[in-house]
UniProtKB/TrEMBL annotation:
This is Uncharacterized protein. InterPro entries: Ankyrin_rpt, Ankyrin_rpt-contain_sf, Dendritic_Spine_Reg/Scaffold. SMART domains: ANK (SM00248). It holds the Pfam family Ank_2. PANTHER family: PROTEIN VAPYRIN (PTHR24166:SF48), ROLLING PEBBLES, ISOFORM B (PTHR24166). The keyword Repeat applies. ANK repeats lie at residues 80-112. Keywords: ANK repeat, Repeat.
Length: 168
């Protein structure tokens, strides 16, 4: 019975997402959407973004995939200037991280404080995710933009040794 209810809930969630996406995605269909803080979004667009981020944060990979398969921008930012990859990394949602990367998420984007998704994984000691994100060097411009490199960030949190182990 429990399996039947879970299946029914997933079906209803998929129908809801497809309906909402088909009604409201028109103005959000772009590869690298970066929302300025004062951009006025419609209630429907804000709701879509909130649903997408809630799914990423809670590990609902099927919902995240549904959004992305219907053209939702993978690197869209929320009101706090985080991407879904940053949220999924911080909250330890490895299957969501994998899905976002498969859909082309930019692992080098930084939030308002200059932190990347990898830095979020380091803070939360999500080493499987950190290893996955470490496959690309995102520190090329850190010195020029006065942001911390991942090594500097790891040092601040006492995680230098663990970070070095990821490179082996």
């Amino acid at each position: 019975m429990k399996e039947l209810l879970n299946g029914l809930m997933m079906s209803l969630a998929s129908i809801l997402i497809i309906t909402v996406l088909s009604l409201g995605i028109g103005k959000l269909h772009a590869k690298d959407v970066v929302m300025p803080q004062n951009t006025a979004l419609s209630g429907q667009q804000k709701e879509l973004i909130d649903l997408f981020f809630a799914a990423a944060k809670t590990g609902q990979v099927d919902v995240v995939d549904e959004f992305l398969n219907h053209g939702f921008p993978v690197d869209i930012r929320n009101d706090a200037n985080y991407t879904a990859l940053m949220m999924a990394s911080y909250y330890g949602q490895q299957p969501v991280v994998s899905s976002l990367l498969k859909h082309g998420a930019n692992r080098c984007l930084r939030d308002n404080r200059g932190h990347t998704a990898l830095m979020g994984a380091i803070v939360k000691a999500e080493w499987t995710i950190a290893k996955q994100l470490r496959k690309e060097d995102c520190d090329k411009n850190a010195d020029q933009s006065h942001e911390l490199t991942v090594e500097e960030f790891a040092r601040v949190f006492g995680q230098e040794e663990k970070l070095r182990e990821l490179s082996k």
